[in-house]
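Chains adopt folds. We examine one example:
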Amino acid sequence: MAVAIRVHEVGGPEVLRLDEVTLGAPGPGEVRLRHTAVGLNFIDTYFRSGLYPAPNGLPFIPGNEAAGVVVEVGEGVDGLKPGDRVAYGSSLGAYCSERVMSAAPLVKLPDSIADETAAAMMLKGMTARYLLRQTHKVKAGDTLLVHAAAGGVGQILCQWATHLGATVIATVGSAAKAEIAKECGAAYVINYSEEDFVARVREITEGALCDVVYDGVGQATYPASLDCIKPRGLFASFGNASGAIKDFSLLALSSKGSLYATRPTLFTHVSNRADLLANAADLFEVVSSGVVKIPVNQRYALADAAQAHRDLEARRTTGSTVLLP
């Protein structure tokens, strides 16, 4: 019998309930997958709270990334067989010990990537990849502002962008997290609990400001983030850790220098197989080569998912977190 964390009504972490679930055989294009590790992400809290509605209604199993071993394959599945190690980062329903799912989001893992590493990096790492290589194609000499730089996506952004030759200005909420951002290659670190990050960005850049701001925080850093961007620069808002941005002003983009703004998501960047494989291949390369390190700093039993959510939302975690079935 498999077990899963299910949400029967949206709300706080207390709505995460451990249930027994019955699985059938995989149908055409599907596999049965035994999870070895499941990734924890802020987007999980958005589905749990109802900020993002679950596509198929209630109840639902949260979670979008995991690693595991293929147990059984259905008709028409090419390239996968029982025993293969795989991972995914864009399929709702990951908080479980086993699942039957479409084979389409699955990517075979190279031997150089451990299961916990894969579960901790697929969603966050593929997010960082599209932000750095598609949303804004980072090049040597660019200046970037990365909010929440000690978080899972933030650490990857700092390491990868520095490798690409960009100057990274990072914001964090504590002295301990400042050290993490420095270790990830940030050239400058701003503790926004003690400093005005807009004033510091102006000082660091001598008034030139940033080519792009990568903002996964949301409401707490808006609209101040716009004041950190040079004319015709980009505001890339990819998350809502502090709550969704309200009352976004298009006119502000005009008055602050003909700025661009986007609210991208991973799902549209890996919606076809070719894009998924290209994204994952780039991620595997930088992680396997050591350019990007994926620290798994917290581990929880799957049954303790509610506590993991509490710690994540209280900013008590750093780097990546995995749930272990």
